Every structure is written in structure tokens, then in C-alpha cells.
Amino acid sequence: MSLPEFKITQLRHFIWVAELKGFHSAAKKACRTQPAISLSIRELENKLDTALFEKVNTKATILTPFGKYFLPKAKELIYHHDNIALDMALMCEHKTGHLRLASVPSISTRMLPELLSEFINDVPDLQISLYDDNSEAVLKKVEKQQVDIGISSLPYKNEHADIKFTPIWKDQLGVVCHRNNPLVEETELHWKKLRKLRLIRNGTSRLLEDTKAKSLLNDSQLFISTMISLIAMLEAGLGVTTLPWFAFPQNNNNLRFIPLKNPKVIRQTGIVQLKNKSLSPAASALENFIIKNTN
């Protein structure tokens, strides 16, 4: 059995003729001529192989029994079509859908609150999931396509050949210690000053691996992966750590940040995405929004 392929326009014409009870009124609503509407209905009837309107000698337009049965079905088809068309149009304009974003904590706490606050004003129906993690975890989420877009640093490009990196922010590496630590008297530090101190490594410690200070990492006794635990240990005076400036907790009166002068390490953080893979409309819109509003 060959199934009829309906044209949305013909279904609309049928509904309008039925509801407005005449071809003339339907033609006026469709901004078409009456013969054009008649042809449209005739083509639809040919597809269905049955009449939709009774042929009577009065001016009234009357549905056949089949036409009465088909009318709610046609309305249902139009309803689903229009909903899908609207959803796709909104998605193309990044106004609906689900955007998954992963970011390093330093950017998600310092930069993203204001940026996302402005971005979502125009997209009240767009769902956004934000995953907070270190750079390596963010990169893996992007590579495994668990998120649409990521924000992190990319210190070792050779380890992530499939990643495209767009630099956005720069900040300097420094030493973070308790306010009672003697180091707070310094305005900047040489890495050798840290030799006799207990250095706590964290996810950003890899920034020192290609510098003269690499030996500090080899001698480090502690590694803490989460920022909450790291800050708690620093506040307890357990040791010192190195962090980029954006990762230093704002409004923390117990800790101090001292720039590292030698080596001077500048971290670049930006947008990471898979090469040769198109972003979703929402992810592309967010990327453009971030670039536009941070330069």
C-alpha cells in the first residue's frame, strides 16, 4: 500500500476551508486566489483518494464524513509540525535546548557568573549545565564529547592533538600561603625560597614542570585535587602552594598571594573544543559572546 505524503500547506488550506466554511474566506486568509485554494484541496483529495467536502448546490461548504474524521487528524499534524519547527528555529537561534559546559574553577568563579548572567537574559528556555573541574578533567570531557564546550588552559598541546584552543584570559602564577607565614613580607618570590617549605601540589602545579622550579614538585609530599580542601589545608597552615591569580580565593583574609618572579609563569586560559566538529548553535553563541565581551 502506497502511503500519501502530506504537504503542510495543503493541510492548512483544508483546515481553513473547513473552519471558515468557504473557499473564498480561506483564500483571503492564505493570501491566495480562490482557484489556487481549490487546486490545493483537490490535490490533497487525490492523495487521500476520497473527497473532503460535499458537492452541494448551496453556498455552504460541508465536510464529508471522511472530512470530519480527517479534520482533527490534520490539526494534530499541523500542531506537531509547528511545534517542531518552532523548537528547531529557537535552537538555531540558541534560545532553547541544553548547553553543557565544563570549566576550571578559577574561571567559573571569577568570570562566568557575570558572563552567564548576561548571556541567559536572552535565552530563558535554554538549559545550561556547568561542570567544575581541573584542566585535565575539562579537556577529557571535551574529548569524550561529554560537554559541548570547555574552558581551561592547554599547557601540553601535544597531549591533546584533537583540541582547538582559543586563548581568552591571562594570569600569573604565584605562591599562596597563610597570612602568618614569614613569606608574606615578600612582594615577589624566587622559587628557591620555597625549597625548605612544605609545598602542596594541586591541579595547576603542572605549570612548573617545564621550569627551573620543577624540582619543587618532585620533593612535594602532598597533592590535593579539590580547591575546597586545598584552601582548608592552607588556612590550617599545613603548607604553601602555587596558584594562578584567578584561582586565588577572593575576600579570604587568612591567605596571601605573592607573585612568583623567577620563574615568571603566565597561564593562558580559554575556550577548548574538538577540532573538525561543529559546535551546537547554543555553544557557538556562548563562544562568540565570551570572545566579544572579554576583549
| Number of separate helices | 10
> What form results from the Cα inertia axes?
rod-shaped
Percent of residues in helices: 25-40%
Instruction: Kindly give the count of domains.
Output: 3
The structure class reads alpha/beta
CATH class type of the largest domain: Alpha Beta
Low-confidence stretches: none
Average per-residue pLDDT, rounded, comes to 91
SS strand fraction: 15-25%
CATH fold topology of the largest domain: D-Maltodextrin-Binding Protein, domain 2
CATH architect. name of the largest domain: 3-Layer(aba) Sandwich
Radius of gyration: 32 Å
Give the name of the CATH superfamily of the largest domain: Periplasmic binding protein-like II
Order of helical and strand elements: HHHHEHHEHEEEEHEHEEEH
Q: How many E strands?
A: 10
Protein name: LysR family transcriptional regulator
Domain HTH lysR-type: 6-63
Organism: Shewanella nanhaiensis
InterPro entries: HTH-type_LysR_regulators, LysR_HTH_N, LysR_subst-bd, WH-like_DNA-bd_sf, WH_DNA-bd_sf
Key features?
LysR_HTH_N; 22% strand; 295 residues; alpha/beta; 39% helix; two-stranded parallel ribbon; transcription regulation; HTH-type_LysR_regulators; 10 helices; Arc Repressor Mutant, subunit A; transcription; D-Maltodextrin-Binding Protein, domain 2; LysR_subst-bd; 8-stranded mixed β-sheet; 3 domains
Helix and strand layout, with pairings?
Layout (H helix, E strand, L loop, with lengths): L7 H13 L2 H8 L3 H15 L16 H28 L3 E8 L1 H6 L1 H8 L5 E8 L2 H9 L5 E5 L9 E16 L10 E2 L9 E2 L12 H5 L3 E2 L3 H9 L5 E4 L10 E8 L3 E9 L6 H14 L1
Parallel strand pairs: 1-2, 1-3, 5-9, 6-7
Antiparallel strand pairs: 3-10, 4-8, 4-9, 4-10
Helix pairs in contact: 1-2, 1-3, 1-4, 2-3
